[in-house]
Design brief:
11 helices
């Protein structure tokens, strides 16, 4: 049973931070980042070739982080690059390495990445991946054959508190729970009211929720979210502040959001610092 799972089970406010693996055979860059936050976070998320760009294996990096720094890791796994056999093999390997927290994702299409002519697999989507991890936890492969040793994954999924149809989003989440999902990490939020509404529905479903926090660096970044990222809305009140603000302004807003999440008794915050790892201790302090 993972540390992250224990914390959520005892209703403590958990802090996770998302990191991109290096495009390198060396983990030193990420290890330097870990050293800056190891004492203040409960777990780190390791992305799986985000935006379809080549990066180090998230499972390998998660294992290195756990072994060298005793920081719990949540590895992302996407359906883009592997078929059902490959996904199961990756999960069995992760379990053998002691990496038990997973965030299940469908994955970005290859044509937006640095290998645009690579062929995406997408044999299943994130719902199917949840089922795979859940089935392995029960000691069987996806063809019904018994494993010599079962896995013990704490299975995460994603959700969007800012979805246009919140009821539909919550129904999706309920379906994911039935398939085996055990916790949720969300898209970024900038309005506590939306977080409260989502949290109310998620509590009824019975899944712990860690709300996404992305610190704004500029008004341009805020407007990009509003114009290009469905379900992520930066309200006018924050746009007005960021109009004359800068990175420090965005960090202060992020810090206020984290404190507000504590006030509404959410299960935690998932910080996505956009390569600004030095911002993390301030935001959660």
């Amino acid at each position: 049973m993972s540390t992250l799972k224990n914390k959520n089970a005892h209703h403590q406010f958990a802090i996770t931070v998302e990191l991109d693996p290096p495009k390198s055979a060396s983990s030193s860059k990420t290890e330097k980042d870990i050293q800056k936050i190891a004492s203040v976070v409960d777990a780190v998320n390791i992305a799986d070739c985000p935006m379809a760009k080549l990066r180090m294996s998230p499972i390998a990096l998660a294992s290195i982080i756990q072994q060298r720094y005793c920081v719990e890791s949540i590895f992302h796994l996407t359906c883009r690059d592997r078929n059902i056999i490959g996904l199961q093999a990756e999960l069995l390997g992760a379990a053998a390495l002691g990496v038990h927290n997973i965030l299940t994702l469908t994955g970005d299409p290859t044509d937006i990445g640095d290998h645009p002519h690579a062929q995406g697999v997408f044999e299943i989507d994130s719902n199917g991946l949840i089922e795979i991890a859940h089935t392995l936890n029960h000691g069987y492969d996806m063809n019904g054959h018994e494993l010599d040793s079962s896995t013990d994954f704490y299975i995460g999924t994603t959700a969007n508190p800012g979805a246009d149809d919140l009821d539909k989003e919550l129904k999706r989440l309920e379906s994911k729970k039935l398939k085996g999902a055990q916790f949720v990490q969300t898209q970024p939020i900038y309005e506590i009211k939306k977080a409260e509404e989502f949290l109310s529905g998620a509590k009824e479903i019975g899944l712990p929720v860690l709300f996404g926090i992305v610190p704004l660096k500029s008004i341009k970044m805020a407007l990009y979210f509003n114009n290009n990222v469905p379900g992520v809305h930066v309200p006018q009140s924050i746009l007005d502040i960021m109009e004359k603000g800068n990175r420090d302004t965005g960090l202060a807003i992020a810090k206020d959001l984290v404190n507000s999440l504590r006030d509404i008794h959410s299960d935690g915050a998932h910080i996505m610092p956009v390569n600004d790892i030095d911002a993390v201790p301030y935001i959660i302090g």
